[in-house]
């Protein structure tokens, strides 16, 4: 088991990619703390599923946008599990719209959740990482933050922000034996992509060399590698998982 007895904190794991990451890391022996906002029953059932794998698990209803609530959540998690080793910043939302019609609220909500959420959680978690001179952070970003996507200026700005944040923090924390990396996902089959228009999906599919969308588990396996000791010399990197869609 790659992650036996490590304590992992994951934002937004009630559904989609976060859920797949929680299960993947739990199968490697990690204890899992995760938060959710709206999907209570899905969060509860994931908590049960994780416990059934023989690890400790704890679901908490915490809005990632709330700096103080997030800070308390980190404190409670450390008390509950007796420490914290790995942080996965995953929670995210989309509010797609052409910029000329985008209202201020949709801009702000996407930035608050996808980018400030990463600040809120990382700010709270790294104090312990620095003290213990050990820690590991993976941020989930998107190819939208690398190559852009029409109608996603808010989301692309937030996801590009995560890439800058990842690299700056990797430079800042390397000296404390803390690695910081990002995974940039392409089109992955989750609730986030299920309502895309059929014509748009078909257009994208034609451009993906592997000819299909990705599965949450395929992102989770890369996260597992990055947080394991197998990746101990990888730092400040952005690994793209998109079936070849955006290769240079
Ligand atoms: P998803 O299925 O819509 O799940 C999003 C998760 O984030 C849910 O668990 C949701 O919890 C949580 N969340 C949202 N806002 C939150 C908040 N304010 N506080 C706490 N939790 C919150 O999305 P996904 O596709 O798995 O995406 C996960 C991450 O991957 C996101 O950062 C997304 O941008 C990124 N990504 C996805 C794709 C893709 O194609 N799917 C591609 C590139 C990157 P509740 O339901 O409980 O609110």
Low-confidence stretches: none
What gap, in angstroms, lies between the N and C termini? 35 Å
- Bin the helical content: 40-55%
Rg over C-alpha atoms, rounded to the nearest angstrom: 17 Å
| SSE string | EHEHEHEHEHHEHHHE
Strand content: 15-25%
Shape: globular
User: Can you count the helices?
Assistant: 9
Average pLDDT, rounded to a whole number, is 98
The class by helix and strand makeup works out as alpha/beta
Bound small molecules, deduplicated: NADP nicotinamide-adenine-dinucleotide phosphate
SSE inventory with pairings:
Blueprint: E1 7-10, H1 16-27, E2 31-36, H2 40-51, E3 57-61, H3 67-81, E4 86-89, H4 104-132, E5 135-142, H5 144-147, H6 153-173, E6 178-185, H7 191-194, H8 198-207, H9 216-227, E7 238-241
Parallel strand pairs: 1-2, 1-4, 2-3, 4-5, 5-6, 6-7
The structure holds NADP nicotinamide-adenine-dinucleotide phosphate.
NADP nicotinamide-adenine-dinucleotide phosphate (NAP) is lined by residues 12-18, 35-39, 63-65, 90-93, 113, 140, 142, 185, 187-188, 190-193.
How does this structure look, described?
Helix 4 (about 105-130) packs parallel to helix 6 (about 155-175). The protein has nine helices and seven strands. The chain has helices spanning about 15-25, 40-50, 65-80, 105-130, 145, 155-175, 190-195, 200-205, 215-225; strands spanning about 5-10, 30-35, 55-60, 85-90, 135-140, 180-185, 240. The termini are far apart. By secondary structure, the protein is of the alpha/beta class. NADP nicotinamide-adenine-dinucleotide phosphate binds near residues 36, 93 and 142.
């Amino acid at each position: 088991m790659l992650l036996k007895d490590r304590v992992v904190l994951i934002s937004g794991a009630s559904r989609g990619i976060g859920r797949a990451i929680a299960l993947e890391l739990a199968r490697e022996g990690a204890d899992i703390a995760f938060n959710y906002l709206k999907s209570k029953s899905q969060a509860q059932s994931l908590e049960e599923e994780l416990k059934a794998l023989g690890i400790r698990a704890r679901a908490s209803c915490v809005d990632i946008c709330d700096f103080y609530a997030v800070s308390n959540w980190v404190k409670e998690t450390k008390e509950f599990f007796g420490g914290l080793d790995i942080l996965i910043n995953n929670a995210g939302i989309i509010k797609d719209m052409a910029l000329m019609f985008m209202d201020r609220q949709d801009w702000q909500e996407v930035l608050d959740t996808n980018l400030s959420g990463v600040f809120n959680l990382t700010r709270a978690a790294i104090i312990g990482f620095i003290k213990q001179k050990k820690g590991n952070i993976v941020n989930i970003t998107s190819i939208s933050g690398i190559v852009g996507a029409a109608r996603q200026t808010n989301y692309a700005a937030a996801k590009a922000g995560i890439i800058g944040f990842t690299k700056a923090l990797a430079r800042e924390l390397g000296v404390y034996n803390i690695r910081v990396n990002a995974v940039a996902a392409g089109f992955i089959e989750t609730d986030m992509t299920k309502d895309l228009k059929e014509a748009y999906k078909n257009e994208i599919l034609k451009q993906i060399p592997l000819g299909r969308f990705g599965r949450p588990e395929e992102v989770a396996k890369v996260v597992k590698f990055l947080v394991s000791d197998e990746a101990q010399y990888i730092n400040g990197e952005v690994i793209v998982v998109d079936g070849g869609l955006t290769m240079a």
